[in-house]
Amino acid sequence: MTFPELLTRLDTLLQQHRPEYYGTLGPPATAAELAAFEAEFNLVLPTELRQWFSWHNGQEGYDSFFQNNCLQSLDSAAESMRINNELLADGDFVTNWWHPAWVPFLENGGGDHVCVDLHGTFTGQAGQIMEHWHDWEQRTVLFPNLTAWLAAVVQAYEQAGAESALLTDEHLEELEPEHPKGFPQEFEAG
């Protein structure tokens, strides 16, 4: 499936199995919002990440979207990036604690993120999906790209939805996506 097809499938799954949660999802990000984000951080978002934020620009509250993470809006991602970029510029981080080309799109509400790494930190593969922990050195590259990640999320939702008509936060926190061969890859900052 293409990335837009996966988003359509995910949208349907959320409406079917998480109707209350679906009601908390934000409207799509506008082209102007996406352009302002790119300009502020001097980045060019990949097509899939633009499509992601153009699907739903975050959510209200911190109910779990997948595992223990909720959807981050462009505004929330920008705030996370501003804080981390400032700490990086001040010399408060060791090597690879944070990189200005990490764009968070999921958060757990406690300062930790799942990011699209536009730099290719650790592996040289720009566009990979990685975890950023605010207080732990572990940096896990979860998937090679956003499409592979979304395909695994959709598959996990389909499997969980086959077992339960309505999915709760507890269901989602326990979901384990199927990773492609060679993933996840473990690294440490520092």
From TrEMBL:
Domain Knr4/Smi1-like residue range list: 28-152
InterPro entries associated with the record: Knr4/Smi1-like_dom, Knr4/Smi1-like_sf, KNR4/SMI1_regulator
SUPFAM superfamilies per record: SMI1/KNR4-like (SSF160631)
Pfam families attached to this UniProt entry: SMI1_KNR4 (PF09346)
Cross-referenced PANTHER family: CELL WALL ASSEMBLY REGULATOR SMI1 (PTHR47432)
Protein name: Cell wall assembly regulator SMI1
Taxonomy of the source species: Bacteria, Pseudomonadati, Bacteroidota, Cytophagia, Cytophagales
